[in-house]
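Quick illustration for those who missed Monday's session on complexes.
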Amino acid sequence: MLVAQVPRCTQGSEAAVHAARGICLPDFRTQCREKTVALNPSMLAAGMRVPPPTATNYQTNNTLSRLHSSIRSCTRCEELVRCRSRVVPGEGSVPADVLFLGIAPGRLGGDRTGIPFSGDRSGQLLRRMIERSGLERVFITNLVRCNPRDAGGRNRDPTHTEIANCRDHLRAEFALVRPRIVACLGRLAWQELVGRLIPFVPRQARPMERDGALLFPMYHPAFVNRGAYPLRLYARDFARLSRLSAGALRLPRG
Ligand code: SF4
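Prediction with iron/sulfur cluster bound:
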């Protein structure tokens, strides 16, 4: 049984990363037995640091892999099944200290690469901020796992029905990852977890405790990339998140 879980790559930490994924993806640059793939160091630094393989890790990886398989065959959202290139499950450390919850895979990002927040400017900014703030054990996912597009082929927000359809997948990821902190990237992610009555105010972030995890509101990187929020303050917010994760920051609870 374990033999089936041994990754095709056999090169140290990359092998463990690939084991966590259950597959080899073109973001890694190392020599696989079956193909050459590219390693992206910033992605490793940004949360793909998987512990050395142990029996427990293999069990966890196996569970994550099984969860990914079931998610990848999902066809609950008729419209998204038509416009998506692929299903994009969450990715990262299991368990994780911080789970980043975005909205949906981007047309130029996850929908193209198969990895949430990668391959586009939002992904680059998020991963750069994670790396700079020193956060290590992170998991990155979205409210929905398929790219929603409008009639013109542009990214759009998922509908309430689409978010509801994908809720089981999100819950399953939460159950597996057991994050101590959930960084909600954008109002939709925040409202999904805390409801509409609690205002979304990342500038003066007030973490809320829900089901044993601290929920932390943050702007979506796309919002920062279009100049609506200063990069300097975004870096400050990540530094606060990092201190919160390290237990060094006690913000007033909402
Ligand atoms: S968005 Fe979620 S629920 Fe809808 S088809 Fe994709 S994986 Fe399934």
